[in-house]
Amino acid sequence: MSQEKILVTAALPYANGPIHLGHLSGAYLPADIYVRYKRLKGSDIVFICGSDEHGVPITISADKEGVKPKVIIDRYHELNKMAFEQFGMSFDNYSRTSLPIHHETGKEFFLEFYNRGILVEKQSQQFYDEKAKMFLPDRYVEGTCPVCGYEEARSDECENCGSLYQPTELKNPKSKISGEKPVLKETSHWYFPLGKYQKRLEEYIKEMNEKFGWKENVLQYCRGWFKDGLGDRAITRDLDWGIKVPLDGVEGKVLYVWFEAVLGYISSSKEWAQNKGDENLWRKYWQDPETKYVAFIGKDNVVFHCIVFPAFLMAWNDGEKVKYCLPQNVPANEFLNFEGKKFSKSRNWGIDVIDFLKLFPADPLRYTLAANLPETRDTDFYWKEFQLRNNSELADILGNFINRTFTFVHKNFEGKVPAKGKLEDIDNEMIKTIDEYPEKISKLFESYKIRDGVLEAMNLARAGNKYFNDSEPWKTIKSDKGKCATTLNICLQAIYTLAELMNPVIPFSSEKIFKMLNAEKTDWASCGKENLKAGHQLNNAEIIFPKIEDEIIEKQMENLNKPEEKVEQKTDETVSIDEFLKIQLKVAEIIEAEKLEKSEKLLKLKIRLENEERQVIAGIAKSYKPEDLINKKVVIVANLKPAKLMGFESQGMILAAEDEKGGLQVLSVNNSVKSGTRVK
Question: What gap in Å lies between CA 631 and CA 636, rounded to an integer?
Answer without folding.
Answer: 15
